[in-house]
Amino acid sequence: MNQNKDQGFIEIRRALISAWRKEPAVELARRLEESGVEIVASGGTADAITAAGIPVERLSSVTGFDELLGGRVKTLHPAVHAGILALRDDPGHIADLEHAGIKPIDLVAVDLYPFPMRDDRAVDLSSAVELIDVGGVAMLRAAAKNFRYVAVLSRAEQFASAADALKAGNGRLSADFCRELAVEAFRWTADYDAAIAARLAFEVKGESPPDRFGLRLRRAIELRYGENPHQLAGFYVSDGDAPTGIAAAERLGGKRLSFNNLLDIDIALRLPREFDQPAAAILKHTTPCGVGIGDDLRDAFLNARSTDPQSAFGGIVGLNRRVNLETAQAIREGFMEVVVAPGFEEEALKELKRSKNLRIMEMTGSPSSDEYDVRSVCGGFLLQRRDAGFPELDDFRVVTGRQPDAEQLAALRFAWIVVRYVKSNAVLLAESRRTVGIGAGQMSRVDAAHLAVWKAGQAGLDTAGTVAASDAFFPFRDGLDVLADAGVTAVVQPGGSVRDEEVINAADERGIAMVFTGRRHFRH
Length: 524
What we know:
Strand content: 15-25%
Number of domains: 3
Structural class: alpha/beta
Distance between the termini: 61 Å
Oligomer: single chain
Number of helices: 18
Radius of gyration: 30 Å
Number of strands: 24
Mean pLDDT: 86
CATH architecture of the largest domain: 3-Layer(aba) Sandwich
Shape: elongated
């Protein structure tokens, strides 16, 4: 019996380790040896532990079988599962173990094949199937079921803390700690199976949405409040997955992030990284109020701010390059809430930290590549593929007599990238390196066109010679006439209206070049 019921502790005498990641497994084995624990390990894990000079019993000597089927079968054996599942206070179970010559296993440490960590599109189906862990999941579930007598470590990230607890407990772990570990193991195996099911369902269903979609979340940050002070709120991430996107960003300075900050940061991470050139986007209420590119980052930021300096006040700045001192100084010329960038030079960070409340976020990796966008509505959830990708210049179809020149095409491409991030109905005016006027969130497209022109005028910007982008087709020619009156020379839009011919004729009449993309970009 390995449990002291009076004090609620489990004595760890024998451990089984089977891990995909060998480094943490070797370190765990070293710590277990120091605590006097007998170690059993499977195949490659045993090789790594032996190479480190740590005594280990190979699992094959326990089961009496070498690995079968190229490693597909190695831990699925009564000598393993009986040793894990035996009730230590059941005389019949103990008698069965003794009769079969099986030793109890008090700790199971498994690091599963990394199926959930792989991008679905980065590995073909046959390779993905080989990353489905069978024996590891079976051992985790068995150990978690028997949590009154067995400690279960379901991820390599738990190995060090468990070894610390074992050392502090003089070779014992508390029953409460082991129960918490069991809960984590069941959560993790559920997530693991859900990821596999989602991938296989995608392969079968193709472009159809999945029949079932699971979300298992844990709270990463407790926020002060939601969109308004009377609303409770938190920031949640996928339980068990490696951090991505905002969850992987590091706050280097400033106040805690708010609910609204996080909504804006999502766009601030994505939009500037659509460009190969140095790029900056300034966000307000999840919509860009200015976007710019430039020869350097400072130039890009100034281009973005020039679109609408008034709205940029208190905005969220997203940048796609490491921030230097000159850019930091330009940012501090006005009041900003948040700056998000891949990195900050030392002097730039010092400069930004002079603004005590400015939240400084470093995001070194790529934005989250999550495939689906999930939203809640009354009584359910909406699920859609994320709006990603856009037509290249070669995919633009000129539908007017006037052909756009090279400079106009560059401006149209720039505008088409940005308009995807503007709340619909959206119409924006742009030059090749900056937005000039943005009409967002209007109930009619002609109003969006009027607003884009008006916003440019408010900022003192000349609209003559600009291009325009519309996130959806023009249902009538009135919106196009507003743009033509403002001096717009070229327009990019999806096309697809029953009145396309009317709108094209209006463009020809006004001497405007127009291209269709065949793809709409509503963002509600």
